[in-house]
Amino acid sequence: MGFRELDNIKGGYDSGFDRILQDFYIPVLNEAKVYKRIAGFFSSTSLAIAARGITGLIKNGGYMELIVSPRLSDEDIKAMEKAAQDPEEIITSVMLDEIENMETFLQKKRVDALGWLLAKGLLKIKVATVYDDKGKMLDYEKVEETGLFHIKVGILEDENGDIITFSGSINETASAWVRNVEEFKVFKYWEPGQTESAKIDIEKFEKYWFGESARVKIMDLPSAVEKKIIKETPRSIEKIEQDLLEAEIKENENAINLNFSPFSYQLEALEIWKKNHRAIFEMATGTGKTKTAQVCIADFMKNCDVPAVVFIICPQDTLAKQWLRDIQDSGIPADNYVICDSDSRGWNKEGENSLLYKLLDVNVERAGKKNILFVYSTFDTYHSEYFVNTVQQYKLKAKYLIIGDEVHGLGSSQRAKGFLEDYEYRLGLSATPDRWFDEHGTQVITDFFGSDRYYFTIEEALTRKNPLTGKTYLTPYEYIPRFVSLEIDELMRYKQLSNSIIRGLCKAKTDGEYADRLQNLMFMRADIHKSAVNKMKEFEDILDEIGDDINDTIIFTSAGQIDDVEQILKRRGIFTRRFTKDQGKAPEKKYGNMSEREHIIQMFKDGDCQCLLAIKCLDEGIDIPSAKRAIILASSTNPREYVQRIGRIIRRYEGKEKAVLYDIIVEPSLEQMEQELAKFEKKIFEKEMVRISEISENAMNRLEIINEVYDRLL
């Protein structure tokens, strides 16, 4: 056949878009008679990766040449300089250690294939050491800094003498190859316009191979290393082919084929998590924390050689069920699951749908099947005595991965009781993982989930473009603050409460009972702002501006406002539904076996409900990408609240080019207050203006808002 008949070989392969191994490496090697490559640092992993797909080369009676570089430490270099050891001795020792560190069955079988080629004289490996301009040998960290082995070169020749070369920043680590995180160009020597580029690749390889580079010295593979690779290698080609086939089958069994291509930033997050298998992903709402976690779940399952149990812990059961649907749609085998929350029956009993039974069952060995269990639970259930005892007692052989979604909610002393050492693998997710005015709770979360963090900010998501769409990862938004004042009677009551608060501040510092009373006074005063009459008037003005384009709107309100808001919408013929703690969470037949909450969300997504009226429950995690507008009637200065609310409307959705956030704010009438009270109220308003500034920081119209904030603070 030959290379010319491979119609699907492209001119280049890019991370995230191509299955590099399946689409290029394996089919080309199946036609190759000669394979040469600069393979980077010597390791059992790089050898195993170089041997991937090599069955075809072996069947073709092919020949292979590899250039590798030993991973020498600074201490190794110093020992050579002191002449304490012969350089070849140290290089040999380093390379033997790498071979000893083969971690998996797959690596061993593929390195065995290279050993067979070595034994038959069909593989030649040369070792390259790199030097600086003064002739000093470099350790592996300095070699990485030079970039000499960042650019990899491969040369393949078929039985017809046709040559394909490839070159680019191909990382020889298994994670880089398997996840396609880099790119390279492909050149066909026989194609007009590609010959010169192919020649450059060939000349680069030959320059190193024949020791013609001023900064690279070449030596033959130390005999001890060669013998180690050859040792215990099967003697027959049939056995090699059988072992490689077994390795491929084993890999396919372990493979978790996600039905989406991870973005580059999600792969970056994975690498952070893989350092210690403990991390917190601080990612802006709407950037795909769930999918990023799925990439980690797939990696966990692929590399888990015992039963795997994934615990997904959420603030509320609506979000837990959303996770269940997302996991089942992801390509991850997730049919075996149990939901543990206050509205799910039987999970804490002894039947087939119980947590106890599921944990016992997942530990039962089944030929040809990977044992996997998903446990979905809520913040208030996962730390319960029964849940904790069952998880600990019936762990048996399994490995546990726990994922805390909206992880900031797990830092209280009560909820942290669920932080068990039995969870070897841990991942926390939140747009705002640090707890507001709770350094201790934040530290508790960090101590459990780990200090490694991956950041993907809202600013980055609004400026960095998705290469698949050419658009930013999140939808740009416009922020429109609307300022209103209190009515006279509201102002009088507000001033009365404020004066009481000012007088009681000192006393509250020493009197616990009075501190509670003071807090109640503050809540009462805040309710005056939340329920201000003029907010309703401004709300009606906003509805007039929006007109008929009211669909896909979320209205964030308070318990004291919701009835009035609902009446206004009803009077205008706008179909709306409430989404509060009062809406049912248990599945019901009348909602098609969905809960009332799930039914309402589905109606909103389908356009059967024009507006959602929300009190808090939509602040965290619920995925409604079609939402394009929000009106805030009640808010706090907690950054988590407004970050989450922005996130509800800026997720990408077909046809949504811009989102709009209205924010109705009470501005104090300072001119109608005594000097001391005016000074006090101005400080409070300055905090509110900080909130406005932070919301507008990433808005399309931020400069306009900044100017308005500045004018109002003068």
In words, what does this structure look like?
This protein is an alpha/beta fold and 714 residues long. 43% of the residues lie in helices and 17% in strands. An 8-stranded mixed beta sheet has the order 1-7-6-5-2-3-4-8, with helices on both faces. A 7-stranded parallel beta sheet has the order 11-12-10-13-14-9-15, sandwiched between helices.
Q: How much of the sequence is in beta strands?
A: 15-25%
Alpha carbon gap, first and last residue: 80 Å
Fraction of residues in helix: 40-55%
Mean pLDDT across all amino acids: 85
Shape: elongated
From the helix content, strand content and strand pairing, which structural class follows? alpha/beta
Q: How many domains, as an integer?
A: 4
Total helices: the number is 27
Quantity of strands, as a count: 21
CATH topology of the largest domain: Endonuclease, Chain A
Summarize the biggest pleated sheet.
Answer: 8 strands, mixed
CATH level-4 homologous superfamily of the largest domain: Endonuclease Chain A
In brief:
The chain is of the alpha/beta class and 714 residues long. It has 4 domains: 3-253, Endonuclease Chain A (Endonuclease, Chain A, 2-Layer Sandwich); 264-463, Rossmann fold (3-Layer(aba) Sandwich); 477-486 and 532-713, 3-Layer(aba) Sandwich (Rossmann fold); 488-529. Strands 1-7-6-5-2-3-4-8 form an 8-stranded mixed β-sheet, with helices on both faces. The chain has a 7-stranded parallel β-sheet with strand order 11-12-10-13-14-9-15, sandwiched between helices. Strands 16-21-20-17-19-18 form a 6-stranded parallel β-sheet, with helices on both faces.
